[in-house]
Write a structure and sequence with these properties.
heterodimer; A: about 45 residues; B: about 400 residues; mainly alpha; Fumarate Reductase Cytochrome B subunit; three-stranded antiparallel β-sheet; elongated; binds protoporphyrin IX containing FE
Chain lengths: ~45, ~400
Amino acid sequence: MKSFLMALVALIVISISANLVLQKIDLSSSNASTSFGNVRISD
Amino acid sequence: MLRLFGLLALMWTLAVPSFAQEMPADTRAATGGAQNLEDIMRRQEGAKIDDSFRSDLTGDPDVAAATTDQLGTLGGASDPDLWRALRYNAADITTQVRTPAATTLMQDGGMSWLSFREGPMLKIAVYLLGGTLLLLTFFYLIRGRLRIHGEKTGRTIVRFKAFERFGHWLLASSFIVLGITGLISLFGRKVLIPAFGHETFSFLAVMSKWVHNNISWAFMVALVIIFFAWVVHNLPDRTDLRWLARAGGLFGGEHPPAKKFNAGQKLIFWSVIVLGGSISLSGLSLLFPFEINLFGHTFSTLNSWGLPNLFGLNDLPYPLSPQEEMQFAQLWHSIVSLVLTAIIFAHIYLGSVGMEGAFDAMGKGEVEEQWAREHHSIWAQEVLDEPANSKENT
Ligand code: HEM
């Protein structure tokens, strides 16, 4: 039971830190398919 | 009179094009080299067409007129040639957009990917997972819970250390959450939106995506932990052949001897490692779009070995556009995940309700001595030969 609970805690810690790291290095999959810079909306 | 002739002549000239339209356009010449009715019909049926007459017709700079001549500045490619080149991804495109797939303006894979994903893929999922659950239910109804046959001793022996159980539960809990959130994504448009509406599904989808993407790391960490923890006990040997020949004693007869893991468990272990590894790899390729391309290279290697021809298939598509790489990664990721999930259903069944005494191995880390003697006789003997390992259950 204790190892199971430890696993759940690890699961949450790993997931949240993974998200923080990915945000920090500014990696988002939607950035890979859209371009934010230099968009000319009208003349 | 002259007017009448004039009128007749006019009618005749107007009528000629309508004759031409009624002519069956079934030869390439009749359409002036363009696609004909047959091509269109075949395309609508989704049949294969050889459209090289169009795809190769993208202009030829070598026969271009000199730039001082009429149309010479077009460089041997007319506007229709240019559009065809765009259509078949053969145009030489430059753009200031710096994303990897920006120069592919059209690609064919998208449609067949979409129709496979929203049709056959969902069927595969339902039949595979539903079928496995049905089989397990039947098995339970026919065989019931697999009991410990002999008298229980009340003594237990240690089977898994805390760290091993930690690794197993990290793997199991992440896998189950990944499975649920993955299925939510797969069945969203076809099932969940019609059933619960866009608002509800939007919330579900955003949550599922966040959870699925981020929990994946825990799964990969756990995969590495259990690989190193258990690989030595899962190398195949001769006891496995005997175990398999008797189907593990599942259909009557004595339990065949087994070491720490029997052949069935070794199959589970290697399925988890190989399929789980492959799911991780294709998942990473989806998480970092266009960065990890797994399929184009694989396809060209398989083609060069002649493997598809061996099975009477055409060569696998190569080269792939960046989008097609992603489409194949998605299909592979889902199908392999579904197969592993079906296998894991059987595993969860046997590790819990299906077999008396099994759950304790992962729950408490200790198993009833009699269970160990029956299911893992060789291992049990080894452990019991060291007296320190057996203890009274209090
Ligand atoms: C609630 C779900 C689960 C339960 C109740 C469960 C239960 C168990 C038990 C009792 C064992 C030890 C068997 C023994 O003592 O010999 C075990 C081993 C194992 N489990 Fe699980 N498990 C679950 C989910 C999973 C999942 C999701 C995975 C992988 C994705 C997994 C992978 C393994 C592997 C590789 C082994 C070692 C080989 C084997 O015994 O087959 N388990 N599990």
